[in-house]
UniProtKB/TrEMBL annotation:
UniProt keyword annotation of Oxidoreductase present: yes
Documented EC number(s): 1.2.1.16
Enzyme class label: oxidoreductase
Protein name: Succinate-semialdehyde dehydrogenase
Signal peptide: none
One biological process term in Gene Ontology: gamma-aminobutyric acid catabolic process
Amino acid sequence: MVQLRSPHLLRDACLIDGAWSRASSGATIEVHDPADGSLIARVPSLSAAEVSQAVEAAGRAFKPWAGLAAQERAKILRRWFELIVANADDLAALMTAEQGKPLAEARGEVLYAASFIEWFAEEAKRVYGEVIPAPQADKRLMVLKQPVGVCAAITPWNFPAAMITRKAAPALAAGCVMIVKPAEQTPLTALALGVLAEKAGIPAGVLQILTGESRTVGGVLTGSDTVRKLSFTGSTEVGRILMAECAPTIKRLSLELGGNAPFIVFDDADLDAAVEGAIASKYRNAGQTCVCANRLYVQAGVFDAFAEKLAARVAALPVGRGTEPGVLIGPLIDEAALEKVESHLQDALAKGARVVTGGKRHPLGGLFFEPTVLVGATSDMRVAREETFGPVAPLFRFETEEEVIALANDTEFGLASYFYTENAKRAWRVVEALEYGMVGHNTGLISNEVAPFGGVKQSGLGREGSHHGIEEYLEVKYWCSALR
Ligand SMILES: NC(=O)C1=CN([C@@H]2O[C@H](COP(=O)(O)OP(=O)(O)OC[C@H]3O[C@@H](n4cnc5c(N)ncnc54)[C@H](OP(=O)(O)O)[C@@H]3O)[C@@H](O)[C@H]2O)C=CC1
Ligand SMILES: O=C(O)CCCC(=O)O
């Protein structure tokens, strides 16, 4: 049982049109603690008809919300931000219980999630239009920015709070309303955010949180003509399905999909900094982020030294329940995730890679996996081509800058990338050559609310966070006025 200071944050009902509702059928989905498999709660499995009711409520809520002054929306969002910060410990406890990440990391995510609300509460006041110098003397040309309308968000389990606020905050700031469907593994953090949104004064229907079977809920949201935009974070495979489902109604789309991040260490890098960056990038959230280093390319001159230093640090990473003090690596989310990590590892070993540290399920059992470092990785291995989404760092040896750029770009993904060099000229060359939406130079941590997060190629469409993030929820209306 999760112990909370404010037990009312643990909800087993959905927020629909300002009321907390269960499925009329009584159907539920079980939520389990990945650290020990215990049952934490049951949340509603809504029917398609119940999801449609939420869409109708959103349609009714849109105009009054969009009609508020931006300052009014900003004040309400600011209250939501403050309530999340005030309840950070409880939200972190819920998150660790359902997702498994260490408590300190969960608390960090809660504050990260809150930062998007604070940021977009401010950006709400800066949605400027334009006046364009006209090509004819008797014309005046203007550009208005208006909210897109009813929006939907489908979010993953790896960041149960931040992936919701990174979408809902800009949407609400712009004057849109939002329906959120969290991942089935992590609905409790989402519902708790709904409790605080209600308390902050976000009106009925403006932010709704729906739980249920993904195809049922997703099918109604993507098929509805009332829903004008979908924002999705998750796998590229599901992103493709949702894009196709949105095609008949030509919805706006933001897609934040899979990655296959290269992490490049050049001979002239600060090796200790590169090791720390690799730990931060690779092992955050037990390797379950779309921006995690997936392939570590290390130049031949420093390969052995880097491998040795990294393996020493990785072997010392404390693994355990997220609630235990000092733990840095929690369990993986489910058995399928564990099996994917194992199969990537077996494939790599069969093709000639060697384990330096880790390499198997952790003695704790359950969903725990040992933080692992592999050497001898090559491009024909699954670890080179697919997102492993677990605590396995495959090290690839390379000789030249040209060679590593070609290797790094040899993927259909283009989300995050990282490189370490002390050479400023090389830094410019490499940043310009990497076909990625985001590049970390001498750092393994790049995410924050003020920067544009997103990918190119099959890693997605659009940007979240930063002043670009609110544009995803705004339509551009051109107004041409003749003076005669
Ligand atoms: N870019 C990223 O941040 C993420 C990438 N991934 C990648 O995807 C792999 C698989 O993870 P997984 O959790 O299965 O990711 P998914 O892409 O399947 O799930 C992400 C979200 O999409 C929902 N969803 C899944 N299928 C549909 C559908 N047909 N219609 C509507 N919604 C749908 C899920 O709902 P529900 O949970 O209810 O099924 C969840 O809310 C990971 O190993 C990782 O490689 C995963 C998560 C995040
Ligand atoms: O993994 C994701 O889906 C989001 C990455 C988390 C972040 O750095 O914002």
